[in-house]
Amino acid sequence: DAGITQSPRHKVTETGTPVTLRCHQTENHRYMYWYRQDPGHGLRLIHYSYGVKDTDKGEVSDGYSVSRSKTEDFLLTLESATSSQTSVYFCAISDSGQGQETQYFGPGTRLLVL
Amino acid sequence: QKEVEQNSGPLSVPEGAIASLNCTYSDRGSQSFFWYRQYSGKSPELIMSIYSNGDKEDGRFTAQLNKASQYVSLLIRDSQPSDSATYLCAVKEDSNYQLIWGAGTKLIIKP
Questions:
Q1: CA–CA distance from B87 to each of A56, A67, B4, B60, B108 (Å)?
Q2: Most A CBs within 10 Å: which of B97, B99, B101, B106, as the mutation test of the A interface?
Q3: How many CA atoms lie within 13 A of B54 on its CB side?
Q4: pLDDT 10s digits, A33-84
Q5: Long-range contacts of residues B79-83, Cβ cutoff 8 Å, at least 24 apart
Q6: Is the CB of residue B102 less than 8 Å away from at least one CB of chain A?
Q7: A89-103 per-position pLDDT tens digit
Q8: What pLDDT shows up at residue B94?
Q9: SS3 of residue A85 by DSSP
Q10: Which residue from A33, A86, A92, A108 could staple onto A103, CB 3.0 to 4.6 Å apart?
Q11: What is the mean pLDDT of residues B25-41?
């Protein structure tokens, strides 16, 4: 998984509680991404980061926030979890972000919101 | 809205045959094209990328790109049961960080 870890790998939580997912990379890549994957929808970008403390929204950012205080860590927070946020969450990294640069994925986090 | 379309399948192919996976995209500004493979319960992994019109071969895999018709395809020769997976197509503009993803085609190789 290209030196990318995600924690936790599985989580069950209740509606209304905050949840934080962590992505950690050892590749020193500048760009990091959070996706969610749901049946029939493919991968949808939640937020991405193009450097420490530099982040931007993706197509499905409502209800999510992110932080990146170090190159290696990118945190995704569900401010108040809802059942619609039950999904598999993937972190990805890339070096330049532009051109032909490939994204590499972490192992994923399965989140169930009851 | 930029879209990437794939047939969801499942596509069933006999072992040893050629599997053909197709992807169409809406944004003519797309410059880079990627095929990822995803086994059930696992993360996507890159198998091919293509940037110019024509064919690109890598072992049993061939990616084909036709920008005029806005489609990209992946051929898998001598299909093996281990090729059974969901194949995701992704496209991007060179000036954009974001990949636009198709929903994937599930491929089943029957022994």
A1: 28, 31, 13, 15, 11
A2: B97
A3: 3
A4: 999 999 878 899 999 999 999 999 998 999 999 999 999 999 999 999 999 9
A5: B79/B13, B79/B14, B79/B15, B79/B16, B79/B17, B79/B18, B79/B19, B79/B109, B80/B15, B80/B109, B81/B15, B81/B109, B81/B110, B81/B111, B82/B109, B83/B19, B83/B107, B83/B109
A6: yes
A7: 999 999 876 666 788
A8: 64
A9: helix
A10: A92
A11: 92
Across the interface, of A42, A45, A58, the residue whose CB is closest to B104 is A42
From the list A1, A50, A99, the residue facing B32 with the nearest CB is A99
CB contact under 8 A, B42 and A107: yes
- For residue B65, which of B77, B79, B54, B78 has the smallest C-alpha distance? B54
Distance CA B52, CA B63 (A): 10
User: What is the rounded distance in angstroms from the CA atom of residue B65 to the CA atom of residue B86?
Assistant: 20
Residue B98: pLDDT band by 50, 70, 90 thresholds? confident
Cβ separation of A100 and B96 shorter than 8 Å? Answer: no
- pLDDT for A43: 93
CA–CA separation, B88 vs B35, rounded Å? 6
Alpha-carbon span A65 to B14, nearest angstrom = 46
Q: Tell me whether B57 touches chain A (CB under 8 Å).
A: no
